Automatic annotation (TrEMBL):
Protein topology in the membrane: Multi-pass membrane protein
Keyword Cell wall biogenesis/degradation carried by entry: no
InterPro entries reported for this sequence: Cardiolipin_synth_Firmi, Cardiolipin_synthase, CLS_N, PLD-like_dom, PLipase_D/transphosphatidylase
Family according to the record: Belongs to the phospholipase D family. Cardiolipin synthase subfamily.
Single GO term (MF): cardiolipin synthase activity
Domain PLD phosphodiesterase: 237-264, 416-443
Functional note: Catalyzes the reversible phosphatidyl group transfer from one phosphatidylglycerol molecule to another to form cardiolipin (CL) (diphosphatidylglycerol) and glycerol.
Lineage per the UniProt record: Bacteria, Bacillati, Bacillota, Bacilli, Bacillales
Listed Gene3D superfamilies: Endonuclease Chain A
Protein name: Cardiolipin synthase
Residues the record marks as active site: 242, 244, 249, 421, 423, 428
Major localization class: membrane
Record-linked HAMAP family: Cardiolipin_synth_Cls (MF_01916)
Entry GO terms, CC: plasma membrane
Length: 503
Protein backbone atom coordinates (compact mmCIF):
# COMPACT_ATOMS: atom_id res chain seq x y z
CA UNK A 1 0.00 0.00 0.00
CA UNK A 2 2.78 2.47 0.94
CA UNK A 3 4.69 1.67 -2.26
CA UNK A 4 1.58 2.34 -4.33
CA UNK A 5 1.03 5.69 -2.59
CA UNK A 6 4.61 6.71 -3.29
CA UNK A 7 4.24 5.78 -6.97
CA UNK A 8 1.10 7.87 -7.39
CA UNK A 9 2.67 10.71 -5.43
CA UNK A 10 5.43 10.69 -8.04
CA UNK A 11 2.84 10.78 -10.82
CA UNK A 12 1.09 13.70 -9.09
CA UNK A 13 4.36 15.64 -8.72
CA UNK A 14 5.14 15.11 -12.40
CA UNK A 15 1.69 16.34 -13.42
CA UNK A 16 1.77 19.45 -11.19
CA UNK A 17 5.35 20.44 -12.00
CA UNK A 18 4.85 20.03 -15.76
CA UNK A 19 1.59 22.01 -15.61
CA UNK A 20 3.33 24.84 -13.73
CA UNK A 21 6.17 24.92 -16.25
CA UNK A 22 3.91 25.00 -19.30
CA UNK A 23 0.79 26.86 -18.25
CA UNK A 24 1.67 29.22 -15.37
CA UNK A 25 2.99 32.79 -15.18
CA UNK A 26 5.46 32.10 -12.38
CA UNK A 27 8.76 33.95 -12.23
CA UNK A 28 11.83 32.44 -13.85
CA UNK A 29 13.35 31.76 -10.45
CA UNK A 30 10.31 29.76 -9.30
CA UNK A 31 10.17 27.90 -12.62
CA UNK A 32 13.83 27.01 -12.19
CA UNK A 33 13.02 25.36 -8.84
CA UNK A 34 10.02 23.61 -10.37
CA UNK A 35 12.25 22.39 -13.23
CA UNK A 36 14.71 21.03 -10.69
CA UNK A 37 11.86 19.20 -8.90
CA UNK A 38 10.60 17.78 -12.21
CA UNK A 39 14.06 16.58 -13.29
CA UNK A 40 14.75 15.10 -9.84
CA UNK A 41 11.46 13.20 -9.89
CA UNK A 42 12.20 11.81 -13.36
CA UNK A 43 15.68 10.74 -12.21
CA UNK A 44 14.25 9.00 -9.12
CA UNK A 45 11.78 7.14 -11.37
CA UNK A 46 14.56 6.05 -13.72
CA UNK A 47 16.75 4.95 -10.80
CA UNK A 48 13.85 2.92 -9.38
CA UNK A 49 13.37 1.34 -12.81
CA UNK A 50 17.05 0.41 -13.01
CA UNK A 51 16.87 -1.32 -9.62
CA UNK A 52 14.33 -3.78 -11.05
CA UNK A 53 17.20 -5.35 -13.06
CA UNK A 54 15.22 -5.90 -16.22
CA UNK A 55 16.94 -6.76 -19.48
CA UNK A 56 18.93 -3.79 -20.87
CA UNK A 57 16.60 -3.36 -23.84
CA UNK A 58 13.48 -3.26 -21.65
CA UNK A 59 15.15 -0.83 -19.25
CA UNK A 60 16.16 1.51 -22.08
CA UNK A 61 12.69 1.30 -23.62
CA UNK A 62 11.01 2.40 -20.40
CA UNK A 63 13.61 5.13 -19.83
CA UNK A 64 12.74 6.56 -23.25
CA UNK A 65 9.03 6.33 -22.43
CA UNK A 66 9.52 8.14 -19.10
CA UNK A 67 11.65 10.86 -20.72
CA UNK A 68 9.47 11.61 -23.73
CA UNK A 69 6.00 10.78 -22.31
CA UNK A 70 6.54 11.57 -18.61
CA UNK A 71 3.00 11.48 -17.22
CA UNK A 72 1.12 9.12 -19.55
CA UNK A 73 4.23 6.96 -19.87
CA UNK A 74 4.67 6.73 -16.12
CA UNK A 75 1.06 5.70 -15.55
CA UNK A 76 1.31 3.12 -18.34
CA UNK A 77 4.50 1.84 -16.72
CA UNK A 78 2.74 1.43 -13.37
CA UNK A 79 -0.22 -0.50 -14.74
CA UNK A 80 1.18 -2.34 -17.74
CA UNK A 81 4.91 -2.53 -17.54
CA UNK A 82 5.80 -4.04 -14.19
CA UNK A 83 6.42 -7.61 -15.27
CA UNK A 84 9.47 -7.92 -13.08
CA UNK A 85 7.99 -6.96 -9.74
CA UNK A 86 9.76 -8.76 -6.91
CA UNK A 87 6.50 -10.27 -5.75
CA UNK A 88 5.72 -8.08 -2.77
CA UNK A 89 2.02 -8.07 -3.67
CA UNK A 90 1.69 -11.84 -3.16
CA UNK A 91 4.62 -12.53 -0.84
CA UNK A 92 2.44 -13.89 1.98
CA UNK A 93 0.53 -16.23 -0.37
CA UNK A 94 3.73 -17.51 -1.94
CA UNK A 95 5.30 -18.25 1.45
CA UNK A 96 2.18 -19.94 2.82
CA UNK A 97 1.70 -22.04 -0.33
CA UNK A 98 5.27 -23.34 -0.13
CA UNK A 99 4.75 -24.41 3.47
CA UNK A 100 1.48 -26.17 2.65
CA UNK A 101 3.00 -28.03 -0.30
CA UNK A 102 5.87 -29.21 1.92
CA UNK A 103 3.42 -30.64 4.44
CA UNK A 104 1.58 -32.53 1.72
CA UNK A 105 4.71 -33.85 0.04
CA UNK A 106 6.08 -35.23 3.31
CA UNK A 107 3.41 -37.90 3.04
CA UNK A 108 4.19 -38.82 -0.56
CA UNK A 109 6.77 -41.12 -2.09
CA UNK A 110 8.31 -40.68 -5.51
CA UNK A 111 6.73 -42.89 -8.20
CA UNK A 112 8.75 -45.29 -10.30
CA UNK A 113 9.48 -43.48 -13.56
CA UNK A 114 11.77 -46.12 -15.06
CA UNK A 115 9.30 -46.59 -17.93
CA UNK A 116 10.03 -43.09 -19.30
CA UNK A 117 12.22 -42.65 -22.35
CA UNK A 118 15.45 -40.68 -22.00
CA UNK A 119 14.06 -37.33 -23.23
CA UNK A 120 10.98 -37.74 -21.00
CA UNK A 121 13.13 -38.66 -18.03
CA UNK A 122 15.27 -35.56 -18.54
CA UNK A 123 12.22 -33.31 -18.50
CA UNK A 124 10.72 -35.20 -15.52
CA UNK A 125 13.91 -34.62 -13.54
CA UNK A 126 13.65 -30.89 -14.19
CA UNK A 127 9.92 -30.86 -13.40
CA UNK A 128 10.32 -32.71 -10.11
CA UNK A 129 13.07 -30.34 -9.03
CA UNK A 130 11.27 -27.14 -10.08
CA UNK A 131 7.61 -27.64 -9.15
CA UNK A 132 6.25 -28.56 -5.69
CA UNK A 133 3.65 -30.83 -7.31
CA UNK A 134 4.90 -34.39 -7.88
CA UNK A 135 4.51 -36.54 -10.97
CA UNK A 136 1.74 -39.12 -10.53
CA UNK A 137 1.45 -42.56 -12.10
CA UNK A 138 -1.84 -43.19 -10.24
CA UNK A 139 -3.95 -40.86 -12.38
CA UNK A 140 -5.89 -40.85 -15.63
CA UNK A 141 -6.43 -38.03 -18.12
CA UNK A 142 -9.13 -37.70 -20.79
CA UNK A 143 -9.12 -35.13 -23.58
CA UNK A 144 -12.28 -33.11 -24.31
CA UNK A 145 -12.39 -31.37 -27.67
CA UNK A 146 -14.22 -28.05 -27.90
CA UNK A 147 -17.22 -26.88 -25.93
CA UNK A 148 -19.67 -29.42 -27.34
CA UNK A 149 -17.73 -32.22 -25.62
CA UNK A 150 -16.60 -30.29 -22.55
CA UNK A 151 -19.71 -28.62 -21.19
CA UNK A 152 -22.09 -31.63 -21.39
CA UNK A 153 -19.47 -33.67 -19.53
CA UNK A 154 -19.01 -30.94 -16.91
CA UNK A 155 -22.76 -30.65 -16.33
CA UNK A 156 -23.14 -34.42 -16.13
CA UNK A 157 -20.44 -34.70 -13.46
CA UNK A 158 -21.80 -31.69 -11.54
CA UNK A 159 -25.21 -33.38 -11.32
CA UNK A 160 -23.52 -36.50 -9.89
CA UNK A 161 -21.77 -34.57 -7.07
CA UNK A 162 -22.47 -35.86 -3.56
CA UNK A 163 -20.15 -33.98 -1.19
CA UNK A 164 -18.69 -30.84 -2.73
CA UNK A 165 -18.16 -28.83 -5.91
CA UNK A 166 -15.24 -26.41 -6.03
CA UNK A 167 -15.11 -24.22 -9.12
CA UNK A 168 -12.75 -21.46 -10.23
CA UNK A 169 -12.86 -19.51 -13.52
CA UNK A 170 -11.23 -16.52 -15.14
CA UNK A 171 -14.31 -15.79 -17.27
CA UNK A 172 -17.73 -16.98 -16.12
CA UNK A 173 -20.60 -15.30 -17.90
CA UNK A 174 -24.18 -15.23 -16.67
CA UNK A 175 -25.49 -15.98 -20.17
CA UNK A 176 -27.44 -19.03 -21.35
CA UNK A 177 -24.59 -21.48 -20.74
CA UNK A 178 -23.46 -19.88 -17.48
CA UNK A 179 -27.00 -19.77 -16.12
CA UNK A 180 -27.49 -23.43 -16.97
CA UNK A 181 -24.44 -24.36 -14.92
CA UNK A 182 -25.48 -21.99 -12.12
CA UNK A 183 -28.90 -23.66 -11.95
CA UNK A 184 -27.15 -27.01 -11.40
CA UNK A 185 -24.92 -25.50 -8.70
CA UNK A 186 -27.92 -23.95 -6.94
CA UNK A 187 -29.82 -27.24 -7.06
CA UNK A 188 -26.86 -29.15 -5.60
CA UNK A 189 -26.31 -26.53 -2.89
CA UNK A 190 -29.95 -26.78 -1.81
CA UNK A 191 -29.48 -30.55 -1.51
CA UNK A 192 -26.58 -30.08 0.91
CA UNK A 193 -23.61 -30.27 -1.47
CA UNK A 194 -20.94 -27.74 -0.54
CA UNK A 195 -20.29 -25.33 -3.42
CA UNK A 196 -17.34 -22.94 -3.37
CA UNK A 197 -17.15 -20.60 -6.34
CA UNK A 198 -14.22 -18.33 -7.33
CA UNK A 199 -14.39 -15.91 -10.24
CA UNK A 200 -11.77 -13.42 -11.36
CA UNK A 201 -12.90 -9.87 -10.63
CA UNK A 202 -11.73 -8.56 -14.01
CA UNK A 203 -12.33 -11.53 -16.32
CA UNK A 204 -15.85 -12.08 -14.90
CA UNK A 205 -16.66 -8.44 -14.29
CA UNK A 206 -19.86 -8.71 -16.36
CA UNK A 207 -21.42 -11.42 -14.20
CA UNK A 208 -24.64 -9.90 -12.91
CA UNK A 209 -24.80 -8.99 -9.19
CA UNK A 210 -28.32 -10.41 -8.89
CA UNK A 211 -27.01 -13.77 -10.10
CA UNK A 212 -24.36 -13.77 -7.38
CA UNK A 213 -26.98 -12.89 -4.76
CA UNK A 214 -29.19 -15.74 -5.95
CA UNK A 215 -26.26 -18.16 -5.67
CA UNK A 216 -25.41 -16.96 -2.17
CA UNK A 217 -29.04 -17.19 -1.11
CA UNK A 218 -29.02 -20.85 -2.14
CA UNK A 219 -25.97 -21.50 0.06
CA UNK A 220 -23.20 -21.20 -2.53
CA UNK A 221 -20.15 -19.40 -1.21
CA UNK A 222 -18.94 -16.96 -3.86
CA UNK A 223 -15.62 -15.08 -3.82
CA UNK A 224 -14.09 -12.67 -6.32
CA UNK A 225 -10.36 -13.08 -6.85
CA UNK A 226 -8.47 -9.82 -6.36
CA UNK A 227 -11.48 -7.46 -6.37
CA UNK A 228 -10.78 -3.92 -7.52
CA UNK A 229 -11.41 -2.18 -4.21
CA UNK A 230 -9.47 0.85 -5.39
CA UNK A 231 -10.63 0.67 -8.98
CA UNK A 232 -7.82 0.77 -11.49
CA UNK A 233 -5.63 2.65 -9.01
CA UNK A 234 -4.59 -0.74 -7.72
CA UNK A 235 -1.58 -2.57 -9.09
CA UNK A 236 -3.32 -5.90 -8.54
CA UNK A 237 -5.46 -5.10 -11.57
CA UNK A 238 -2.55 -6.47 -13.61
CA UNK A 239 -2.34 -9.82 -11.80
CA UNK A 240 -5.33 -11.91 -12.80
CA UNK A 241 -6.42 -15.45 -11.99
CA UNK A 242 -6.50 -17.12 -15.41
CA UNK A 243 -7.12 -20.62 -14.00
CA UNK A 244 -10.10 -22.79 -15.00
CA UNK A 245 -10.62 -25.48 -12.35
CA UNK A 246 -13.50 -27.71 -11.28
CA UNK A 247 -13.08 -30.37 -8.59
CA UNK A 248 -16.00 -32.66 -7.71
CA UNK A 249 -15.94 -34.81 -4.54
CA UNK A 250 -12.14 -35.04 -4.83
CA UNK A 251 -12.62 -37.67 -7.55
CA UNK A 252 -13.13 -35.67 -10.74
CA UNK A 253 -11.19 -32.66 -11.98
CA UNK A 254 -11.57 -30.42 -15.01
CA UNK A 255 -8.89 -28.05 -16.34
CA UNK A 256 -8.02 -26.54 -19.71
CA UNK A 257 -8.60 -23.61 -22.03
CA UNK A 258 -12.38 -23.21 -21.92
CA UNK A 259 -14.02 -20.51 -19.82
CA UNK A 260 -17.81 -20.43 -19.40
CA UNK A 261 -19.78 -18.45 -21.96
CA UNK A 262 -21.76 -19.10 -25.13
CA UNK A 263 -18.85 -17.94 -27.30
CA UNK A 264 -16.96 -21.05 -26.14
CA UNK A 265 -19.71 -23.06 -27.84
CA UNK A 266 -19.26 -21.06 -31.03
CA UNK A 267 -22.56 -19.21 -30.55
CA UNK A 268 -21.10 -15.71 -30.76
CA UNK A 269 -21.47 -14.59 -34.39
CA UNK A 270 -18.63 -12.08 -34.11
CA UNK A 271 -16.21 -14.74 -32.87
CA UNK A 272 -17.51 -17.71 -34.86
CA UNK A 273 -16.27 -21.27 -34.42
CA UNK A 274 -14.27 -21.73 -31.21
CA UNK A 275 -11.48 -24.33 -31.23
CA UNK A 276 -10.35 -25.31 -27.75
CA UNK A 277 -9.20 -28.23 -25.62
CA UNK A 278 -10.11 -29.21 -22.07
CA UNK A 279 -9.24 -32.16 -19.86
CA UNK A 280 -10.94 -34.44 -17.34
CA UNK A 281 -8.72 -35.86 -14.59
CA UNK A 282 -9.21 -38.81 -12.27
CA UNK A 283 -7.06 -40.25 -9.51
CA UNK A 284 -4.18 -38.70 -7.59
CA UNK A 285 -3.73 -35.72 -9.93
CA UNK A 286 -7.18 -34.45 -8.89
CA UNK A 287 -5.84 -34.00 -5.34
CA UNK A 288 -3.02 -31.76 -6.57
CA UNK A 289 -5.39 -29.77 -8.79
CA UNK A 290 -7.66 -29.42 -5.75
CA UNK A 291 -4.72 -28.11 -3.72
CA UNK A 292 -4.33 -25.25 -6.21
CA UNK A 293 -7.99 -24.31 -5.75
CA UNK A 294 -7.91 -24.62 -1.96
CA UNK A 295 -4.82 -22.42 -1.64
CA UNK A 296 -6.55 -19.78 -3.77
CA UNK A 297 -9.67 -20.03 -1.62
CA UNK A 298 -7.70 -19.66 1.60
CA UNK A 299 -5.95 -16.60 0.17
CA UNK A 300 -9.09 -14.72 -0.80
CA UNK A 301 -11.30 -15.85 2.11
CA UNK A 302 -8.82 -15.95 5.00
CA UNK A 303 -10.20 -19.35 6.02
CA UNK A 304 -8.20 -22.47 6.89
CA UNK A 305 -9.90 -25.29 5.01
CA UNK A 306 -7.03 -27.20 3.43
CA UNK A 307 -6.78 -29.88 6.11
CA UNK A 308 -10.50 -30.56 5.84
CA UNK A 309 -9.96 -32.07 2.39
CA UNK A 310 -6.67 -33.88 3.01
CA UNK A 311 -8.45 -37.25 3.03
CA UNK A 312 -10.09 -36.69 -0.37
CA UNK A 313 -7.28 -38.31 -2.31
CA UNK A 314 -8.06 -41.13 -4.71
CA UNK A 315 -5.40 -43.40 -6.17
CA UNK A 316 -5.95 -45.36 -9.37
CA UNK A 317 -4.23 -48.69 -8.83
CA UNK A 318 -5.72 -51.04 -11.40
CA UNK A 319 -2.43 -52.57 -12.42
CA UNK A 320 -2.46 -50.74 -15.75
CA UNK A 321 0.27 -48.17 -16.32
CA UNK A 322 -0.91 -45.30 -18.52
CA UNK A 323 2.02 -42.94 -18.35
CA UNK A 324 2.24 -40.15 -15.79
CA UNK A 325 0.51 -36.86 -15.02
CA UNK A 326 1.77 -33.69 -13.33
CA UNK A 327 -0.31 -30.65 -12.35
CA UNK A 328 1.78 -27.46 -12.37
CA UNK A 329 0.51 -24.12 -11.06
CA UNK A 330 2.33 -20.90 -11.87
CA UNK A 331 1.94 -17.21 -11.21
CA UNK A 332 2.91 -14.52 -8.71
CA UNK A 333 2.38 -17.15 -5.97
CA UNK A 334 5.23 -19.31 -7.35
CA UNK A 335 8.81 -18.65 -8.38
CA UNK A 336 9.17 -16.04 -11.11
CA UNK A 337 8.75 -17.28 -14.67
CA UNK A 338 7.96 -20.87 -13.65
CA UNK A 339 5.75 -21.70 -16.65
CA UNK A 340 8.23 -20.11 -19.04
CA UNK A 341 10.92 -22.40 -17.60
CA UNK A 342 8.65 -25.41 -18.06
CA UNK A 343 7.91 -24.49 -21.66
CA UNK A 344 11.61 -23.94 -22.39
CA UNK A 345 12.55 -27.25 -20.79
CA UNK A 346 9.89 -29.31 -22.57
CA UNK A 347 10.79 -27.75 -25.93
CA UNK A 348 14.50 -28.33 -25.32
CA UNK A 349 13.86 -32.02 -24.55
CA UNK A 350 12.54 -32.74 -28.06
CA UNK A 351 14.43 -35.16 -30.32
CA UNK A 352 11.98 -35.52 -33.22
CA UNK A 353 9.11 -33.04 -33.20
CA UNK A 354 7.67 -29.98 -31.46
CA UNK A 355 4.01 -29.13 -32.11
CA UNK A 356 2.61 -25.98 -30.51
CA UNK A 357 -0.88 -24.47 -30.65
CA UNK A 358 -1.37 -21.12 -28.94
CA UNK A 359 -3.84 -18.26 -29.44
CA UNK A 360 -1.37 -15.68 -28.13
CA UNK A 361 2.13 -16.46 -29.36
CA UNK A 362 4.49 -13.84 -27.95
CA UNK A 363 7.42 -15.98 -26.78
CA UNK A 364 10.28 -14.67 -24.71
CA UNK A 365 13.85 -14.80 -25.96
CA UNK A 366 14.70 -18.12 -24.31
CA UNK A 367 11.78 -19.93 -25.97
CA UNK A 368 12.52 -18.37 -29.36
CA UNK A 369 16.10 -19.54 -29.02
CA UNK A 370 14.97 -23.07 -28.10
CA UNK A 371 12.68 -23.19 -31.15
CA UNK A 372 15.36 -21.88 -33.52
CA UNK A 373 17.98 -24.30 -32.22
CA UNK A 374 15.57 -27.25 -32.46
CA UNK A 375 14.67 -26.40 -36.06
CA UNK A 376 18.36 -25.93 -36.93
CA UNK A 377 19.05 -29.45 -35.61
CA UNK A 378 16.47 -30.89 -37.98
CA UNK A 379 13.70 -31.34 -35.42
CA UNK A 380 10.22 -30.79 -36.90
CA UNK A 381 8.86 -27.59 -35.34
CA UNK A 382 5.24 -26.62 -36.01
CA UNK A 383 3.46 -23.61 -34.54
CA UNK A 384 -0.28 -23.10 -34.99
CA UNK A 385 -1.91 -19.72 -34.34
CA UNK A 386 -5.31 -18.26 -35.24
CA UNK A 387 -5.64 -16.42 -38.55
CA UNK A 388 -7.55 -13.62 -36.81
CA UNK A 389 -6.84 -12.78 -33.20
CA UNK A 390 -9.15 -10.97 -30.80
CA UNK A 391 -6.67 -8.12 -30.29
CA UNK A 392 -4.67 -5.91 -32.65
CA UNK A 393 -1.51 -5.90 -30.53
CA UNK A 394 -1.45 -9.64 -29.87
CA UNK A 395 -2.11 -10.49 -33.52
CA UNK A 396 0.64 -8.31 -34.96
CA UNK A 397 3.09 -8.87 -32.12
CA UNK A 398 2.80 -12.61 -32.80
CA UNK A 399 3.47 -12.09 -36.50
CA UNK A 400 6.55 -10.00 -35.77
CA UNK A 401 8.29 -13.17 -34.56
CA UNK A 402 7.50 -15.20 -37.67
CA UNK A 403 10.42 -14.08 -39.90
CA UNK A 404 13.20 -15.17 -37.52
CA UNK A 405 11.51 -18.55 -36.97
CA UNK A 406 10.72 -19.13 -40.64
CA UNK A 407 14.36 -18.53 -41.53
CA UNK A 408 15.35 -21.52 -39.40
CA UNK A 409 12.76 -23.81 -40.95
CA UNK A 410 9.98 -23.54 -38.36
CA UNK A 411 6.60 -24.35 -39.91
CA UNK A 412 3.89 -21.83 -38.97
CA UNK A 413 0.23 -22.67 -39.58
CA UNK A 414 -2.58 -20.13 -39.66
CA UNK A 415 -5.83 -21.66 -38.34
CA UNK A 416 -8.71 -20.48 -40.54
CA UNK A 417 -11.83 -22.35 -39.39
CA UNK A 418 -12.45 -20.01 -36.44
CA UNK A 419 -10.69 -18.77 -33.34
CA UNK A 420 -7.99 -21.12 -32.04
CA UNK A 421 -7.84 -20.83 -28.22
CA UNK A 422 -6.24 -24.10 -27.11
CA UNK A 423 -2.85 -24.04 -25.36
CA UNK A 424 -1.12 -27.28 -26.34
CA UNK A 425 2.48 -28.45 -26.70
CA UNK A 426 3.27 -31.95 -28.00
CA UNK A 427 6.84 -33.23 -27.94
CA UNK A 428 7.88 -36.30 -30.00
CA UNK A 429 4.24 -37.43 -29.93
CA UNK A 430 4.63 -38.79 -26.39
CA UNK A 431 5.13 -35.81 -24.03
CA UNK A 432 2.66 -32.96 -23.79
CA UNK A 433 1.35 -29.91 -21.98
CA UNK A 434 -2.25 -28.71 -21.82
CA UNK A 435 -3.77 -26.02 -19.64
CA UNK A 436 -4.50 -22.35 -19.20
CA UNK A 437 -1.11 -20.73 -19.86
CA UNK A 438 -0.59 -18.98 -23.18
CA UNK A 439 2.86 -18.55 -24.67
CA UNK A 440 3.15 -14.88 -23.77
CA UNK A 441 4.60 -12.63 -21.09
CA UNK A 442 1.28 -12.15 -19.32
CA UNK A 443 0.91 -15.88 -18.70
CA UNK A 444 4.60 -16.18 -17.80
CA UNK A 445 4.79 -13.30 -15.31
CA UNK A 446 1.39 -11.81 -14.41
CA UNK A 447 -1.40 -14.38 -14.48
CA UNK A 448 -2.17 -17.22 -12.09
CA UNK A 449 -2.14 -20.30 -14.35
CA UNK A 450 -2.35 -24.09 -14.13
CA UNK A 451 -1.21 -26.68 -16.69
CA UNK A 452 -1.15 -30.46 -16.83
CA UNK A 453 1.96 -32.18 -18.20
CA UNK A 454 1.52 -35.67 -19.65
CA UNK A 455 4.27 -38.30 -19.85
CA UNK A 456 3.55 -41.23 -22.18
CA UNK A 457 -0.19 -41.05 -21.49
CA UNK A 458 -2.62 -42.54 -24.01
CA UNK A 459 -4.50 -39.21 -24.03
CA UNK A 460 -1.53 -37.69 -25.89
CA UNK A 461 -2.65 -39.72 -28.91
CA UNK A 462 -5.91 -37.77 -28.88
CA UNK A 463 -3.97 -34.49 -28.80
CA UNK A 464 -1.90 -35.66 -31.78
CA UNK A 465 -5.01 -36.71 -33.72
CA UNK A 466 -6.76 -33.41 -33.00
CA UNK A 467 -3.66 -31.41 -33.99
CA UNK A 468 -3.46 -33.25 -37.31
CA UNK A 469 -7.15 -32.51 -37.90
CA UNK A 470 -6.56 -28.84 -37.10
CA UNK A 471 -3.76 -28.71 -39.67
CA UNK A 472 -6.36 -29.54 -42.34
CA UNK A 473 -8.23 -26.38 -41.27
CA UNK A 474 -5.04 -24.33 -41.41
CA UNK A 475 -2.80 -22.86 -44.07
CA UNK A 476 0.96 -23.08 -43.83
CA UNK A 477 2.68 -19.71 -44.12
CA UNK A 478 4.95 -19.53 -47.14
CA UNK A 479 8.24 -17.89 -46.06
CA UNK A 480 8.90 -16.25 -49.45
CA UNK A 481 5.42 -14.75 -49.64
CA UNK A 482 5.57 -13.64 -46.01
CA UNK A 483 8.85 -11.80 -46.59
CA UNK A 484 7.11 -9.88 -49.40
CA UNK A 485 4.36 -8.54 -47.14
CA UNK A 486 3.72 -4.83 -47.47
CA UNK A 487 5.22 -1.90 -45.63
CA UNK A 488 1.99 -1.29 -43.71
CA UNK A 489 1.95 -4.85 -42.37
CA UNK A 490 5.59 -4.59 -41.30
CA UNK A 491 4.87 -1.30 -39.58
CA UNK A 492 1.95 -2.79 -37.65
CA UNK A 493 4.15 -5.70 -36.53
CA UNK A 494 6.99 -3.44 -35.44
CA UNK A 495 4.63 -1.19 -33.51
CA UNK A 496 2.85 -4.10 -31.79
CA UNK A 497 6.17 -5.73 -30.90
CA UNK A 498 7.05 -2.73 -28.75
CA UNK A 499 4.31 -3.89 -26.39
CA UNK A 500 5.24 -7.59 -26.42
CA UNK A 501 6.68 -7.31 -22.93
CA UNK A 502 3.23 -6.57 -21.50
CA UNK A 503 1.01 -8.79 -23.70
Amino acid sequence: MRKRRVEFLIAFILFISLSLLLFSNLSLAVKAWVSLLYISTIMVSIYSLMLENRSPQHTLLWIYVLLFFPIIGYLFYLFSGQLYLKGYLFRSKRKKDREEWKKVLQQDTSPDLAFLQDYQHSFAKFANHTSPTPISTASRSFILKNGDETFPEIMKKLKEAEKFIHIEYYIFRSDRLGNEIIRILIDKAKKGVEVLFIFDAVGSRKIRPEVIKEMEKAGIRVKAFSPLKYGFFNQKVNFRNHRKIIVIDGKIGFVGGLNVGVEYLGENKKVGFWRDTHMLLKGEAVFFLHMVFLLDWEYISGEKILQRYSTFKTIIDDGILDGAVQVVASGPDTQAGLMSDFYFSIISSATKSIWIASPYFVPDESIRTALRVAAAKGIEVRIMVPEINDGFLTQYASRSYFPELLRYGVEIYSYKKGFLHQKVIIIDGNLASLGTANMDMRSFHLNFEVNVFLYGSSSIRDLVTHYEQDMKDSEIINPVQYYKRGFLERSKESFARLFSGVL
